[in-house]
Amino acid sequence: MEKGMKGAAFAIFALACALLLVLGIGVAYAASGNTDAACSVFPELSLEKGAISSGPGRVATVKISVKGMQGQSCGLQAYGVDFTNGFDGKDFVLAIKGSQERNLFYLKPGETKTFEGLVGIPPETAAKNYTLQVTAYPESDHWKQASKNFDLEVGAQDAADAYWSTQLQIGWNLVPNAPYLGIYGCPDINTGYRYSAYKGDYITLNRYGAVFSVAPFEQDVANENYGGLFVFSTKRCTLESRVPSDTLRDAQVSLRDGQLLSIPPAWNGQTAGKLVQSCMEQSKNPSDAVELKAWDANNQKWTSLPLNQQLKNGEVVRALANFDCTLSLENRVN
Amino acid sequence: MALPKHFFGLFALLLCLSSLYAAQPPSFAPKYSWGLALSTQEGALPAESLVYVRYGADNGKEYSTILSLREGGRATLYTNTGVSWAEISYDDEKTPALDAVWNGSLESAEQQKIIRLPSVGEVAGVLSYQNGSAAAYVPVELSCSDGVERSAITGESGAFSFSRVRAGKCIASATADGIAVQEEFPLAMGQFVNLGLMPKKNDFTPIIAALGITALCALVLVMLLFKKPGEQGSQGEKRARMAKPKVEKMPTQRQLDLLSTLDEKEKSIVNYAIHHFPAAVRVSRIRRDLLIPKTSLTRTLAALERKQFLKVEKVGARQFAQLHEFFKGNALP
Lengths: 334, 333
Hints:
Chain A is built from 2 helices and 22 strands. Chain A has helices spanning 2-32, 272-280; strands spanning 44-47, 51-54, 59-67, 77-83, 93-96, 104-107, 112-120, 129-138, 146-154, 162-168, 171-175, 191-196, 201-208, 211-214, 229-233, 237-243, 252-254, 259-262, 290-296, 301-304, 316-321, 326-328. Chain B is built from 8 helices and 18 strands. Chain B is globular. At the A-B interface, helix 1, strand 12 and strand 13 of A face helix 1, strand 4, strand 5 and helix 7 of B.
């Protein structure tokens, strides 16, 4: 009886495996689509806006939609969409969010996918009108490309912008960051690491053009995204950002369990002790403590930060509190 | 026909997952800081050279990071846990292979640990039968100055490779066609040695060569003695006869034109291959030196192969990239 049961279980298991295999092959075949010439057709490309305006050092975004125009019998087809270097493309740092390489994706017949184009405007860009171009094409035939142009109006430098600049040494360096902040320079650096108290470890950020954004396999925690980044550099170069006054509006950071704190313009000149004091005012237990450390990139070492040391706009310090302590990046520390 | 595409996709996914274990920044709130002073047989490692550190933590997990050294080869490794074992490797970008590697225990975090990294190099080659065909799936032995006997099995093309081989005098040996073949060679720090092993039966080559050279010398002597005046060619003709075929230095104008069609990342990879030419470079080395994520490198290499800039070959478990004939200019596409 027991033998019979075992036999039946084995048969069911074998059948399930065979079914999975057949299903897998079927899905793979369906997903591969048909690569006949008739299925290599021009995709439909559309942009959310025909014109955008921004300023030097900023990052403008443009929504790009691509529709698969192949016939129903073609199934899934691979398409690509990218900015081109045509017109004024070479003057900007262009990227599609989520793609560090050629942006390839699959579309069903009639399906539309939307992407976020990131237009990094280097700080030294002259104020005038520029033309940028986006192209979508079927992977099986790059000549069947659909192109769309849009105008970019670059205004004058905003005098209210703050400036963050970090001279990188060879090795690990800390760089200030904020969501959608354009970081320019050192084009070889394409990865950054931010400490996540939620994860208890570093999370990876990919650099898409001028923006560092949380890698797809990591979890983005809202109150951590003003944290500074560890980047590894194999050469000396400078990373710089223009910080628009509204970037840090209402920005709150929690130092509980740690944060790589990007020192905002409002805190420039305040002492490390003032920061600790402000945090300790939120303390409820005698065992509560805040520890500040700095990364010495010249010597590749953590060093302690004296309480009388003045903080500088754009430097990054390691702040670690063992209790709930929240600070505002918009205003001076009280 | 459709399946391989998806298997490639699965492979890319696996590569992506493996990239999660890439080098991490210094520990956020380290419990231990390990002071290191690193040197090789040539002295302290230079300031700002990069070493790759892999270590096993007390919790059984494995971590890795890159350290940028300071004067005297000094560096600090920050960890959250004790370290049960560590591997430190140094790779000078000017040499084609890994330069030095050390394995051991860091012992105590309280005092600076002075570590001398043993020098290593890389050995690869092809084993052929007497008729020139590849000797596939044949064991090749390698013995070097550290006394460790290593063994590898040739691939389908007869290729074999040994990495992280202790520098010094080495002997590679194999048996093909029932005949033992052996080659002794020196291996320097960071050197990549490419061997061609082929067994030779009744090897009279040196004798025949010596006889041939003697006969040739005698013939030239006789011709010179009995040559009529006026029969001598002009100096220009002679120089033209003696001249070596012109070899253009890389990159040639044609190559520069081809390079201008690539994006910056592709260019940096091809330039890296040009820098190491004629040696093939390990794909993992390209990734480490140019700091390119695995998935992105795989895609870029595939594109460069398609465009006939590079060819990528698998030797054992390792992938090597080298310049494609089309790009070198030796062959038509």
